[in-house]
Amino acid sequence: MSNDLMRFSVAMPEELLMRFDQLVARRGLAKNRSEVVRDLVRDALVEDECATPGVEVMGTLTIVFDHHASDVQEKLHNIQHDYFGNIVSTLHVHLDQHHCLEVVILRGETGLVQTIANLILGTKGVKNGRLVLTTAGEGL
Q1: pLDDT by residue (tens digit) across 77-100?
Q2: I need a labelling partner for 38 at 20 to 30 A (CA). Which of 22, 93, 108, 134 fits?
Q3: Which residues span the domain enclosing 24?
Q4: This protein's superkingdom (predicted)?
Q5: pLDDT score of 35
């Protein structure tokens, strides 16, 4: 992708522009409207790419589970071993006497990564979780 910048104009309602300027201000650090628009466009393009079947993605799956639930840790470990080629790493944190947070780093084709995440999220004892996908964003 070329580093040459192209100008274009955007028309929007005043209220929306005011809220956008507040977003720019919250992001701070030398961010201006143009930089924030570029960031938003890149985010949308990566999100669209991640939704495309067959694309190689990376993801983080963050889950909270009750480690006293029946065999939950063993079931999670079995899934992780079944997909060792796609599970790059895990981080385990004890939240309290009963609950743990685990972050699982995944890599692979979109559908497979989502399948693995669904297996983990569907494990009895997993209370909640969220999968966040991204790509290398080549050319962005």
Answers
A1: 999 999 999 999 999 999 999 999
A2: 108
A3: 12-49
A4: Bacteria
A5: 85
Q: How many CB atoms lie within 10 A of CB 33?
A: 13
In the prediction, which pLDDT does 66 show?
A: 95
Rounded to 10 deg, the angle between the 14-27 and 33-50 helix axes is: 90
Task: Give yes or no: residues 91 and 123 share one domain.
Answer: yes
Which residues carry a binding-site annotation? 81, 92, 94, 100
Binding-site positions for Ni(2+) read: 81, 92, 94, 100
> Hey, what amino acid is at 47?
E
Q: How far is CA 98 from the centre of its chain?
A: 26
Residue 69: what residue type? A
Question: What is the distance between the alpha carbons of residues 129 and 140, in angstroms, rounded to a whole number?
Answer: 29
Contacts of 5 (CB under 8 A, 6+ apart): 34
Q: What is the pLDDT of residue 30?
A: 62
Which DSSP string corresponds to 106-125?
Answer: EEEEHHHHHHHHHHHHTSTT
Residues 6+ apart with CB under 8 A from 89: 104, 105
Q: In what order do the strands lie in the sheet with 56-66?
A: 87-94, 99-109, 56-66, 126-134
Whether 61 shows a pLDDT value over 80: the answer reads yes
